[in-house]
Design a protein that fits this description.
Elements (H helix, E strand, L loop, with lengths): L4 E4 L10 H11 L4 E8 L3 H15 L3 E8 L6 H5 L4 E4 L4 H7 L6 H9 L3 E4 L1 H4 L4 E5 L2 E2 L2 E2 L13 E4 L7 E4 L1 H5 L1 H9 L6 E4 L3 E6 L2 E6 L3 E6 L5 E6 L4 E3 L2
Parallel strand pairs: 1-5, 2-3, 2-4, 4-5, 10-11
Antiparallel strand pairs: 1-12, 6-9, 7-8, 11-14, 12-13, 13-16, 14-15
Length: about 240
Amino acid sequence: MSGSVFLIGGGWDAPEVYQPFLRRAAARGGGVPRVGCVIVDEGDGAAQFERYAGVLGKAGPCAPVPLLVPVGGRFEPEGVLDGVDGLLVCGGLTPAYQEAFVECLDRLPQLLAERGVPYAGFSAGAAVAARRAVVGGWLTDGVPVCPEDTAEDLEEVAVRAGLGLVPFAVDVHAAQWGTLGRLVAVVRRGDVPYGVAVDENTVVEVDGEGCRVAGVGRVHVVRPGGEGGVVVRAYGAGEVFGLS
């Protein structure tokens, strides 16, 4: 794991979930932090940026910077990170975000660590922070494991290479979209070592050896259990769980 990582499960009703990230970015910059907002632009990137800038402004003083990547394009981190104190990877179609980072999966975490830049992921941005990223799908071997409208334009559940900022897989909108079942399925069949499903308006702060939960929802940690099963434990605001 590299640096400080903040995983937000989606939602727009709790700007305070950005505050731990903004505090870390401000500490790095020594003033009002410049926050780079990576958005895969599906044609409404400027409007999406304004939405994120608005919620960040409600969370605290900051200067958001739009970093728009066209669909099918690639994110190039070197020059971008020179001018920001924190990197927020936003939401949208998760497979498109994974593709945007596919050529810098090793370089970006290294650069974040070297420069002390904290990473926050919102929805898709949280999912791709994992070493093995759950990018969508609603079927495993043709059997439904979550609602079809959460599938991100995929049929079978897909796990692809991610940024490796955290050792566990991440799914999002857990309570609101019913995606916990998808994460249970990938942990059960051994596609990922373990997983964390985050509710909306909830954040997991990952730093050092532990993870702290904040916000109004819960975080559901899914680990392998005996005889091919899994064990799920839910954590609320102020609670912590280990990385191992």
